[in-house]
Amino acid sequence: MTAEDSRATALPLALDAMGGDHAPGAVVNGAARALAKNADLRFLFFGDEAALLPLMQREPDVMRVSEIVHTTEKVASTDLPSVALRKATKSSMRLAIDAVKEGRASGVVSSGNTGAFMAMAKLVFRTLPGISRPAIIGMMPNKHGDVAMLDLGANVQCSARDLYDFALMGNAYARAILGRKNPAVGILNIGSEEIKGHEELREAAARIKASPVKMNFIGFCEGNDICNGQVDVIVTDGFTGNIALKTAEGTSHFMYMQVKNAITSSIFSKLGYVLARPGFKQMKRTLDPRRFNGAMLIGLNGVAIKSHGGADGKAFASAIRVAHRAVSSKMNERIIEELTIAGNQDYEESNANHDSLAHSS
Amino acid sequence: MTAEDSRATALPLALDAMGGDHAPGAVVNGAARALAKNADLRFLFFGDEAALLPLMQREPDVMRVSEIVHTTEKVASTDLPSVALRKATKSSMRLAIDAVKEGRASGVVSSGNTGAFMAMAKLVFRTLPGISRPAIIGMMPNKHGDVAMLDLGANVQCSARDLYDFALMGNAYARAILGRKNPAVGILNIGSEEIKGHEELREAAARIKASPVKMNFIGFCEGNDICNGQVDVIVTDGFTGNIALKTAEGTSHFMYMQVKNAITSSIFSKLGYVLARPGFKQMKRTLDPRRFNGAMLIGLNGVAIKSHGGADGKAFASAIRVAHRAVSSKMNERIIEELTIAGNQDYEESNANHDSLAHSS
Q1: Is A187 helix (H, G, I), strand (E, B) or coil?
Q2: What averages of pLDDT result for each successive group of 10 residues across chain A (361 residues)?
Q3: Which of the 8 DSSP states describes residue B345?
Q4: Which residues are within 8 A (CB) of A8 and not within 5 positions of it... i.e. 6 or more apart?
Q5: CATH of A135-289, one of 3.40.30.10, 3.40.50.720, 1.20.1090.10, 3.40.718.10
Q6: Closest Cβ–Cβ partner in A192, A247, A276 for B153
Q7: Among the four A145, B52, B149, B200, which has the fewest Cβ within 10 Å?
Q8: Which residues in chain B (138-197) have CB-CB distances under 8 A to chain A?
């Protein structure tokens, strides 16, 4: 019996209304946008009531399905996780997490300090039985829609066992969140014949192949495979994943600017852009990073979704959607089922050590 | 006194005419294109004379400044480096490298098997005094022109000392090849407050800051900084560099396809493209990956440039240009000067071990 079992999808989502650069406005606006697309949603807002109430009164639909839990403290974006853990036990972030643990909410969404959020969520939720390290999993656009990648930065170094766990969890995520029936899972590596990458990667691949969990494992993939639509789940350590994610984001932005320069280079090209605009608008919609906002802290015994610190309302609505899908698809239960099939041994002991040290440096 | 000193820029460049998917045609065509832009060039072609001669007869300018050294063997793209090292001592690749060592050529360019090329060049040239590991350094487009990145795949794991050496060499490269007066050098890392990346990265940063070599060191940079024009030289290990390079390439290609789809989505957008075409053509020229072809095996006591296996004539001409600049700017002498200032200790002993094992797995 896990904490997950006792939570119904009818429970509200807990929202850290004070996290991120545009809080609380973006949080209220995001809730309104998400609600407009899914009338089943309900919310628990954790934040300063004096700031929240006027915003929510302008969104009567949100008001109708929400409660405010007044909080006076908040985690600063500059707080070290260790400091936030000790000091901010009454913060909007911490209380939103506690609400999930206590069965008053189905999942938590925050745009606040990533390190503090991970440290608190890990302390409160603990990891799923058999998982030693939670990871951050996010989505990026690719040729056929979306690709999921983990870890995006929670674990700088990973063992073969960690990567194997990531593959199991990523597989469950792609089915639950991306709606893939038989997701293709690959391990990020470098392809040169002469150098076949780190030993852990080869060992992780061997573990996946030998696993009793049926998985559409395609083996190693390379950086250029992230966007090409051949892979649905990219498994990597948090250092490499973070570099790859940010390189892809930076390259996309650079290319956007190049296209913009090309379009505005002459009066003719500007005129041409007017004619081609519907196509470009569609492209912009497809690639809009806000559509891909909402990274799950996967491997925890509770649904926690990290929204980008700079998220606006539209982006925050995407993060709410990820949280709702994770809850309604009972994703963590699916992961537990797969871990049971895989026969993963329990990491309780090592968890106890991890928790006390987690992200405290 | 190094091998470099005895080589004048008037010496020809040695070309492996049998390496790569489009050899020998792309090699001859590349030489013709490079020569058209720089009349000082001279070439030594290593390859099958029967295949080369008819191609060269169609390029009388190339014929006039070149010699053919007939070879019967070649390194296959599928050969393991260890196999190529033992077997292919009479190959076009190996003989082209030997020509540089023997003072008959100023540098070598090959589109052949990367692992074999690195292993042979390392064995023949040895590393520069004070350098333990050569790296692969290449160029990518960024906001202000080009950015150099190393290592792109020669060394999967790197010590702080290796990264420090890469920074020194990258600094010299950016001045010699990219023409930067005071290049900004950064170490690729992940930025999250809670996780500050590998210990080696912090130690490498400390070494650079404490170095007697004056360098415009900007500290850590992230994946999204590769293209943003704030950094001229990105220092990283070969695993991360390879992932970042291929992620950027894949994302660029993906974005191209998105733009193409946007442009061809309707009759109006197609018409718009006709009007905007000059701008897009300029963009395509700016970002053409062939412009960035030619990765230097840096840290060797001899100029060796690796061209992409799929390089066509235009791409191969870029690699020739890199070789010529490295030679004419006396880049390796500059690196040696900096290493002397830095007081790098000699790695002769560890080199001896490295060489015998290099890329043999």
Answers
A1: strand
A2: 46 97 97 97 97 96 97 90 87 97 98 94 94 94 90 92 96 92 95 67 93 92 93 96 94 87 82 82 85 95 96 97 95 90 60 37 31
A3: P
A4: A106
A5: 3.40.718.10
A6: A192
A7: A145
A8: 141-143, 153-154, 156-157, 188, 190, 192-197
- The CATH 3.40.718.10 domain(s) of chain A lie at 135-289
Question: Which two tokens mark A88?
Answer: 């901010």
CA dist A116 and A109 (Å) reads 13
pLDDT, tens digit, 9 for 90 and up, residues B212-258: 988 999 999 999 999 999 999 999 999 999 999 999 999 988 988 88
B-facing residues of A in 103-142 (CB < 8 A) are 113-116, 118-119, 141-142
In chain B, which residues fall in CATH 3.40.718.10? 7-134+299-330+347-361, 135-255+285-290
Q: Are A43 and A12 in contact (CB under 8 A)?
A: yes
Task: Answer yes or no: are the C-beta atoms of A279 and B168 closer than 8 Å.
Answer: no
pLDDT at position B6: 40
Residue type at position B40: D
CATH topology of domain A1-132+299-361: Rossmann fold (3.40.50)
ipTM of the complex: 0.87
- Secondary structure of residue B173 in the 3-state scheme: helix
Of B193, B271, B287, nearest to A258 by CB-CB distance is B287
